[in-house]
Design goal:
single chain; five-stranded parallel β-sheet; about 30% helix; binds 5'-O-[(S)-butoxy(hydroxy)phosphoryl]adenosine
Length: about 650
């Protein structure tokens, strides 16, 4: 496990290779600097030109940025366009029309390909089917689909008719589905009978049924079901219809509905430090512009590239870099239904060879687990496959440790491919801090520099910029086109969460800690500074997991959740629990811990299962009754306690809470 656990940080610099610079969109640091200067000199002009060059507008915008109601910024507001037209129709009559848009590899290895023309036809027919269900511009549609082309088509079809999609990751629970339907006021749900992952058939429709049955979902008029497998599922008469049923007789053409640039393209729920997940609302113009631009800038996508982003469409990465970005860029992309370890941990490498992937984008967690697999089984080491098609590697979702970076660079990229460590968030809509493959000298573990036009900085609590070398809060000081517009239905929470008064109310606070290095001003993101967890690149709130635990009212009196570092998943969830019965030990403790894990999986989803559950007679609190989270974090890590514990009523609980189950 040396590659993962070694604490040695190689502070090496990798300048862009000649081959990466040749023909790159942004070639060399001078070109990058010039773009940054242009953005600083004429901010609006910079963005206006990009928006005109990269998007097809049915009605041109006349005003680029409206800051009058900051932080509710508006971009290209009087312009009109359609997101789906910018991904599909715009290629009609060009050589891209007959190019492969998607190479879909199913869980069992079956491959299906779709040209741009094929996709346009399928999206149009499905869009017509949505209209026939009475779904209209402005309606919200919840999508709970497997990682399949049909999921992509469903999203594109919504965009085509101006409906706002809200995708819920297929690993989330019935309760999560219920809460999101209610919050978004969804009029329809698009789902599948089952999903296939790792050779297993897992229900989706049954979870939708359960979610709707929890109540409050009267807004849902129809449930459309893609029959992914031959297995029947429950169908509610009048409400539920299969794709086959609704597609029957639908015309092949569906004119894209022009919408205003600020029209909500989608709402995607993500966790915050308090309360329920928030619906991050994105605007059509800015989002699609950014998806397209970052495909060009960060992936330097070229006509014969084969792009593969391994993210699920249920996360923002799947929105930006599966459903919109690659299509807007006219690229060929691989879409994969399954998991990296089935039938074995060589699946990714095998697929890169099979489809001649040239730009590969995945998460550090996946890399770390594949390192581990390769170290214990030679047969799944990437060296067994021909990966010479690769040109650029990308990383996303969490900080990548320099050791994993080096392994990825050497063993996957053959020391030939730049690794773009892209820092961004659901809220930013796309990459905001990232190396450019043909320009930026790379430093393992650093996401390097902001993209042109992104005014990122590291500041103190008052918003004052800190000198390089000092750790602080990561902020973005000026708006950018793909930024979150609001939290669906809760503008006040939006303002409070992201634009704190203490910083002047106009600076975007990311919620991450960061430091810029002294040599280059490169950013190194150190992780969340709020109560948000990042487990395998999946974002969860500590409060969410705590609420789920205390919802087990017959058993749990109190719970506190913290993160501890984990060499595979980045962070792991550690829950400290006080039961409504005497503190269990031994076998009983193990059994209750498992019961609670399964309970949390049911409440939120399996990704939220605490790895570690510990029981105490009570929790460590300050005199004023606040849970001492810093102390709990130390206990979770197994560190020596340096905090002052003299105020603890019952110091014996520290030993109790150190015991793992
Ligand atoms: C949080 C956002 C980015 C899309 C997928 C996750 C962490 C993300 C990096 C990176 C260090 C990263 C941050 C961020 N994060 N990428 N390259 N280096 N940290 O989106 O679920 O909204 O999570 O993921 O902590 O705030 P998300």
């Amino acid at each position: 496990m040396s590659a993962i656990t070694s604490v040695l940080v190689e502070n090496r610099v990798f300048p862009p290779a000649e081959a990466s610079m040749r023909g790159a969109r942004i070639a060399g640091m001078a070109a990058y600097d010039a773009m940054c200067q242009e953005a600083a000199r004429d901010f609006e002009g910079f963005w206006a030109k990009l928006a005109r060059d990269h998007l097809v507008w049915t009605r041109p915008f006349t005003k680029t940025l409206d800051e009058s109601q900051a932080p509710f910024y508006k971009w290209f507001e009087d312009g009109e366009l359609n997101a789906s037209a910018n991904c599909l129709d715009k290629h009609v009559g060009t050589p891209v029309e007959n190019k492969t848009a998607v190479i879909f590899e199913a869980d069992d290895g079956t491959v299906t390909t779709y040209t741009y023309k094929d996709l346009l036809l399928r999206v149009s027919r499905f869009a017509n089917a949505l209209k026939a269900q009475g779904i209209q511009k402005g309606d919200r549609v919840l999508i709970y689909m497997p990682m399949t082309v049909e999921g992509l088509i469903a999203m594109q079809a919504c965009a085509r008719i101006g409906a706002t999609h809200s995708v819920v990751f297929g690993g989330f629970s019935a309760k999560a589905v219920n809460e999101r339907i209610i919050d978004a006021g969804a009029v329809a749900v698009i789902t599948a009978n089952y999903q296939m992952r790792g050779g297993k058939e897992m229900p989706l429709k049954a979870i939708v049924d359960e979610g709707i049955a929890m109540g409050g979902c009267e807004s849902v008029r129809s449930v459309l079901v893609y029959m992914r497998t031959p297995t029947a599922c429950n169908m509610v008469a009048g409400r539920d219809k299969t794709f086959e049923d609704v597609l029957k007789g639908q015309p092949d053409e569906c004119p894209p509905v022009p919408v205003g640039a600020e029209h909500p393209l989608f709402v995607l729920y993500t966790s915050g430090s308090t309360g329920k997940p928030k619906g991050v609302q994105h605007a059509t113009g800015g989002f699609v512009l950014w998806a397209k631009l970052t495909m060009d800038w960060v992936f330097d996508i070229r006509p014969d590239d084969v792009f593969w982003c391994t993210a699920d469409i249920g996360w923002v990465t799947g929105h930006s870099y599966v459903v919109y970005g690659p299509l807007a860029a006219g690229a060929t992309q691989v879409m994969f239904e399954g998991i990296p370890t089935y039938p074995n941990a060589g699946r990714f490498w095998q697929m890169i060879e099979r489809h001649r992937v040239s730009v590969f984008y995945t998460a550090p967690t996946a890399i770390r687990s594949l390192i581990k697999a390769a170290e214990s089984d030679e047969k799944v080491h990437p060296k067994n496959w021909d990966l010479s098609s690769l040109r650029i590697l990308g990383s996303v979702g969490e900080p990548i440790n320099p050791e994993a970076w080096m392994w990825y660079y050497r063993n996957v990229g053959g020391e030939r491919c730049p690794v773009v460590d892209t820092w961004w968030q659901t809220e930013t809509g796309g990459h905001v801090i990232s190396p450019l493959p043909g320009a930026t000298p790379l430093v393992p573990g650093s996401c390097t520099l902001p993209l042109p036009g992104i005014m990122a900085a590291v500041v103190d609590e008052t918003g004052k910029e800190l000198p390089n070398g000092s750790g602080g809060m990561l902020v973005i000081q000026r708006p950018w086109p793909a930024m979150i517009r609001t939290i669906w239905g809760d503008p006040e929470r939006f303002r409070k969460t992201y634009f704190p008064e203490e910083m002047g109310g106009r600076t975007y606070l990311a919620g991450d800690g960061a430091v810029r290095d002294k040599e280059r001003g490169y950013f190194r993101v150190t992780g969340r500074i709020d109560d948000v967890l990042n487990v395998s690149g999946h974002r969860l709130g500590t409060m969410e997991v705590e609420s789920a635990l205390v919802a087990k009212t017959d058993l749990v009196a109190e719970a506190a959740v913290v993160a501890r570092p984990d060499e595979l998943t980045g962070e792991a969830i550690c829950a400290f629990v006080v039961l409504k019965r005497p503190r269990p030990t031994g076998e009983e403790a193990k059994q209750i811990a498992n019961e609670l894990r399964n309970w949390v999986a049911k409440e939120i989803g399996p990704i939220a299962k605490p790895k570690d559950i510990r029981f105490g007679e009570n929790l460590p609190k300050t005199r004023s009754g606040k849970i001492m989270r810093r102390l709990l974090r130390s206990i979770a890590k197994g560190e020596a306690i340096t905090q002052d514990t003299t105020t603890l009523e019952n110091p014996a609980i520290l030993d109790q809470l150190a015991e793992r189950n």
